[in-house]
Amino acid sequence: MFEVIEVSGIATIQDLGRSGWRRFGVPLSGPMDAFAFQAANLLVGNPVNTATLEIGGGEIELQTNQDCVIATAGAGYSLSVYTWEFPLWDSCLARAGWTVRLKKGGSTGGGMWAYLAVAGGFDVLPILNSRSTYLRGHFGGIEGRLLQAGDPLRVGTVKLPLADLSGRTLIEDARPTYVESPSIEVIPGPQVKSFTDESIDTFLSSLYRVSATSDRMGYRLEGAALSHSRDVDLISEGMTIGSIQVPADGQPIVMMADCGTTGGYPNIASVIRTDFSLLAQCRPGKDSVRFRATTIEAAQEKYRTMMEKMKNGIIDS
Amino acid sequence: MKPKILPLGDSALLIQFGNEINLETNQRVHALDALLRAEAIMGITEAVPAYTTLLIHYDPLELTYENLSKWVNTEMDRVESSASRKPHLIEVPVRYGGTSGPDLEWAAAYHKLSIPKVVHLHTDLTYTVYMMGFTPGFPYMGKLHTSLVTPRLDSPRTLVRAGSVAIAAEQTGIYPIDSPGGWRLIGWTPLRLFEPSSNAPFLFAPGDEVRFINEGIDV
Lengths: 317, 219
Prior knowledge:
heterodimer; A: alpha+beta; Cyclophilin; 2 domains; six-stranded antiparallel beta sheet; 15% helix; B: alpha+beta; Gyrase A, domain 2; seven-stranded mixed β-barrel; four-stranded antiparallel beta sheet
């Protein structure tokens, strides 16, 4: 078991999310950076959908009362275990009584979210078949809320010997290239014709800053306003993570992990899966993004390649 | 209108059946949804029916957009000819007006109807759950009697109590959890719409039919 000693920022328990309930209006939730999340799990030998700790915008210190293997992944953080510093994307042993600390500031400069996976996973009560925390709904994870000092985090059963799981790394070539102002690929949305041609050009050529008011539900973007060529009120329809909606004020909003299941603003484009991690790692109030169009075939091929590289990229360091 | 298939990003596919809210279009959405669920295709993770659209979420590691859209096209022909299924009917007891429905009096005045007449018009029809969304378990039901079509609040309430029965435009709904809300509140039901830890967490499902039962009017 781990105990939370000290925590700040948005720290929650997340697995891959609450799939199957969106038809009832329940958001998917799950990690903001699904790539880093899955890599952290693979590094400690877990199935990719195992519950991990996600932290953004703050720091956390934990203490373990059992020997375990942990791994971290993401951007903008560094890890210390007992008295040693470890890079992200490595697995290591944490002995009973040791403290584990995720601190802000990484090797890459920017970065917003990090994942701490433990072999066996964090064993919290599943709600609607998922251990993900849904903050707005007040359920999942630990009582549907942010982690607090004093919270106990139980560790699930580990099948493999710990020695086999520690000292592994994800090769650098398999990791996403996180940068402070990424170029993000998008696929034009179902309502792309609801925008003027000039607005589409503007959207694909301007720099948009991620607003400080962004959260796990949505990243609000600030930049050149986009104009609609027709009514902005749409009959509500399903939307998903990565969908970019444009309300009447013309400032786009990217739907993030906790986004609603349906929406009524026109969708100009959607961020592709591989690039969603790059966008999620942008710091609200600091970093900016640019968008460029791609095709669905190219996007799906890029995603398959990325996931293949992740699965084959884990080696003993 | 012939349904249109469009990508929504690289992991979802949107099928548009029409561009206005009506029961016939919505029934086609639910018919295709039922067919997809019955066939349990590998790679389809879930589908979200809405008023005029069905959104299919899929795993691009298992299915390409091209293969899925081809398959949906073939299925669509089967939907058009398949007999309509018998929906599940749920009765909802409602206490109208007073603190249960603080906007009932306003709604009656707005429509120049008596309060009992408004309640009668609300309980007289069988509604369809066109879709669910907004908060977990919130049913968007319609259509209201044309004399009950009511504008939303200019500024939403910051807190609407769970169980509140409300109307807005041509729709009626019930708030499943305490949340903000901009619909006009006309009554309250003791039924629980969402129980996260139950085996059957939701009272309603998209496509269900609903009737409201008048349990009394407070003034």
